[in-house]
């Protein structure tokens, strides 16, 4: 979908990070309603006032948009947004600082973190994503 060229200290650090790999996107893919786990990654906070110090991931399951209340409205389109809830036996969700991070399924980016659990607690452990299939055609490289 796009290429990113990194310059400076980060570029040198990324050469040493052998576990980093590119993730292919698939614009225009049909939406699949699946209970299979999805992964969200980000550098966001780990508690209300605790900044993230390492890249973390959360395992999520897609749910109807109403499952992401109060961060979604009844009139919002499931063709544009996706709701991620913690997978069975987990409690992960996005937090402040995770916006823009990927939601990955089957090695492909299917969503971009938009909003969710701003206090990083268990009150609303939900994550809202913009669907890549809804925006892929409008991305410019």
What does this 3D model show about the protein?
By secondary structure, this protein is mainly beta. It has one domain (23-138): Beta Barrel (Thrombin, subunit H), CATH 2.40.10. Helices cover 9% and strands 28% of the residues. The chain is built from 2 helices and 7 strands, in the order H-E-E-E-E-E-E-E-H. It has helices at 9-16, 132-135, and strands spanning 24-25, 38-42, 56-63, 81-86, 102-105, 108-116, 127-131. A 6-stranded antiparallel beta barrel has the order 2-3-4-7-6-5. A hairpin with a 2-residue loop joins strand 5 and strand 6.
Largest sheet: 6 strands, antiparallel, barrel
Helical content, roughly?
Answer: under 10%
**Relative strand content:** 25-35%
Task: Give the C-alpha Rg.
Answer: 15 Å
Number of domains: 1
Alpha carbon gap, first and last residue: 8 Å
Overall mean pLDDT: 77
Tally of contiguous helical segments: 2
Question: Quick one: CATH superfamily?
Answer: Trypsin-like serine proteases
Shape: globular
Could you please say which CATH topology applies here? Thrombin, subunit H
Supply the CATH architecture.
Beta Barrel
Which CATH C-level class is it? Mainly Beta
Low-confidence sequence ranges: 1-33
Strand tally, please?
Answer: 7
| Helix/strand structural class | mainly beta
The SSE order reads HEEEEEEEH
Short description:
With 141 residues, this protein is mainly beta. The chain contains 2 helices and 7 strands; from the N terminus they run αβββββββα.
């Amino acid at each position: 979908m796009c290429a990113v060229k990194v310059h400076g200290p980060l570029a040198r650090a990324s050469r040493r990070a052998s576990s980093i790999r590119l993730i292919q996107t698939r614009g225009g893919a049909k939406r699949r309603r699946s209970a299979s786990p999805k992964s969200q990654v980000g550098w966001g906070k780990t508690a209300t006032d605790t900044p993230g110090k390492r890249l973390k991931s959360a395992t999520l399951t897609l749910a109807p948009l109403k499952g992401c209340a109060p961060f979604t409205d009844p009139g919002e389109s499931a063709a544009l947004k996706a709701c991620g809830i913690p997978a069975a036996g987990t409690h992960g969700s996005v937090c402040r600082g995770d916006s823009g991070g990927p939601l990955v399924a089957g090695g492909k980016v299917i969503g971009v973190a938009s909003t969710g659990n701003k206090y990083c607690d268990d009150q609303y452990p939900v994550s809202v994503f913009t669907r890549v299939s809804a925006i892929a055609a409008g991305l410019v490289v």
